[in-house]
């Protein structure tokens, strides 16, 4: 997360660097080197990968199949909770890869 890009004061930076700058500004404010402290929020975007078909795949995966792909029951439980909700969610690339791998395993068994 700290390496994700964010726009701040017209420049693209990482969250880590943005937080570093804010800490320095806070330290200067607390030590009376600066009289003002800005509370400008950076602009950021989150890419979401949660189309309907991905949600359905997640809901259809059994815990046994998921374990055979090398994931824990807890990971699938968490993903199923997200898939059931109406809120958007994102998947890590390796998780999305395994969901696709599961789909090919299932279609190969038919």
Q: What keywords describe this structure?
A:
about 110 residues; mainly alpha; 2 domains; two-stranded antiparallel sheet; about 55% helix; elongated
- What is the helical fraction, as a range of percent? 40-55%
Q: How are the strands ordered across the major sheet?
A: 1-2
Helix-strand category = mainly alpha
Q: What does the average pLDDT come to? A: 80
Q: Please tally the helical runs, counting DSSP H or I stretches of 4 or more residues.
A: 5
Topology:
Layout: E1 5-8, E2 11-14, H1 15-30, H2 52-60, H3 63-68, H4 73-84, H5 93-109
Antiparallel strand pairs: 1-2
Helix pairs in contact: 2-4
What does this 3D model show about the protein?
The chain has helices at 15-30, 52-60, 63-68, 73-84, 93-109, and strands at residues 5-8, 11-14. Helix 2 (52-60) crosses helix 4. A two-stranded antiparallel ribbon has the order 1-2. It starts with a strand and ends with a helix. By secondary structure, the chain is mainly alpha-helical.
């Amino acid at each position: 997360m700290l390496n994700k890009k964010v726009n701040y004061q017209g420049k693209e930076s990482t969250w880590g660097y943005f937080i570093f700058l804010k800490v320095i500004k806070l330290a200067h404010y607390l030590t009376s080197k600066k009289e003002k402290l800005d509370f400008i929020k950076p602009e950021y975007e989150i890419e979401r990968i949660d189309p309907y078909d991905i949600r359905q795949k997640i809901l259809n995966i059994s815990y046994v199949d998921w374990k055979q792909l090398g994931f824990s029951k807890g990971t699938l439980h968490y993903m199923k909770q997200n898939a059931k909700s109406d809120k958007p969610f994102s998947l890590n690339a390796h998780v999305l890869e395994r969901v696709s791998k599961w789909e090919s395993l299932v279609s190969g068994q038919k």
